């Protein structure tokens, strides 16, 4: 099952030159590999290792979360909304699953 | 750990010589609750190839984290640097007592020097935000987070 990613802009339609906060949430258990289940077995590590944020196919930010990132992690950035464009978020985890989401940034 | 020895020695000397108020102010500058520099040093060397002594404590880095977190599994952390965006290369975040001290690394390229996320903290320990600049400097801000339930066990 691909990783589900949600993207939200605050404000939703920024004015040109305004600061916009890009919030990304990935739905993922982010198992750190240190937790044990009820029978005492170690739950194998399974967390996102790389998340790329692209604006018009140009990489603007790359996150490398370790096991120390919480479940259903939030990744928030701020950028200057200089022009409208398409934000693309891609990620992959330790088991090789990937996720992708595009969102259009429109100016007011 | 020279710094630790120095701190212990100086704290002892101060306690013998002067008032208790001066002692507490001296400690407040030195040690954060749950500090574990040996574990942190290991992580820093592994990730950055630098030691704790290469980090510069800076007011330009602003770290926002709760002082007390109910659950270590979900601690909101916000890092902001008052530097021009083009000077900042990456933001790293460490926690002293995590088995793997590196919480995350973010490489910034065209966004403002700001990052917010939620992290897991194993036990009460300082969280350290390290901003790597393009000219190779490491600016650090630390804050101790008290954890009642660990996030990694």
How would you characterize this protein structure?
- The complex is a heterodimer of chains A (about 110) and B (about 150).
- With about 110 residues, chain A is mainly β.
- In chain A, about 0% of the residues lie in helices and about 50% in strands.
- Chain A has a single domain, classed as Immunoglobulins (Immunoglobulin-like, Sandwich).
- The model of chain A has no long low-confidence stretch (mean pLDDT about 90).
- With about 150 residues, chain B is α+β, with helices and mostly antiparallel strands.
- Chain B folds into two domains: about 30 residues; about 120 residues, SoxY domain (Immunoglobulin-like, Sandwich), CATH 2.60.40.
- In chain B, strands 1, 3, 5, 6, 8 and 9 form a six-stranded mixed sheet that branches. In chain B, strands 2-4-7 form a three-stranded antiparallel sheet, with no helix packed on it.
- In chain B, helix 1 runs antiparallel to helix 2.
- At the A-B interface, strand 4 and strand 5 of A face strand 6 and strand 7 of B.
- Strand 4 of chain A pairs antiparallel with strand 6 of chain B.
Supply database-style keywords:
heterodimer; A: about 110 residues; mainly beta; Immunoglobulin-like; four-stranded antiparallel beta sheet; three-stranded antiparallel beta sheet; 7 strands; B: about 150 residues; alpha+beta; six-stranded mixed beta sheet; 3 helices
């Amino acid at each position: 099952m691909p990783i589900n990613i949600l993207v939200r802009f605050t404000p939703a339609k920024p004015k040109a030159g305004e600061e916009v906060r890009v919030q990304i949430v990935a739905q993922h258990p982010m198992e750190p590999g240190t937790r044990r289940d009820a029978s005492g077995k170690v739950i194998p590590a399974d967390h996102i290792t790389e998340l790329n944020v692209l604006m018009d196919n140009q990489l603007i930010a790359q996150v490398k979360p370790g096991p120390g990132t919480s479940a259903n992690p939030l990744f928030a950035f701020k950028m200057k909304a200089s022009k409208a464009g398409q934000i693309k978020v891609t990620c992959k985890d330790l088991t090789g699953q990937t996720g992708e989401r595009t969102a259009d940034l429109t100016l007011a | 750990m020279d710094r630790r020895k120095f701190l212990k020695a100086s704290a002892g000397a101060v306690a013998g010589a002067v008032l208790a108020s001066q002692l507490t102010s001296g400690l407040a500058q030195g040690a954060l609750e749950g500090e574990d520099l040996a574990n942190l040093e290991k992580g820093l060397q592994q990730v950055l190839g630098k030691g704790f002594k290469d980090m510069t404590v800076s007011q330009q880095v602003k770290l926002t984290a709760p002082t007390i977190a109910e659950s270590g599994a979900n601690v909101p952390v916000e890092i902001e640097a008052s530097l021009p965006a083009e000077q900042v290369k990456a933001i790293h975040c460490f926690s002293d007592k995590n088995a793997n001290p590196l919480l995350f690394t973010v490489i910034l390229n065209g966004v403002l020097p700001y990052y917010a996320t939620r992290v897991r903290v194993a036990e009460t320990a300082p969280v350290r935000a390290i901003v790597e600049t393009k000219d190779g400097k490491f600016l650090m801000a630390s804050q101790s987070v008290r954890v009642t339930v660990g996030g990694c066990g």
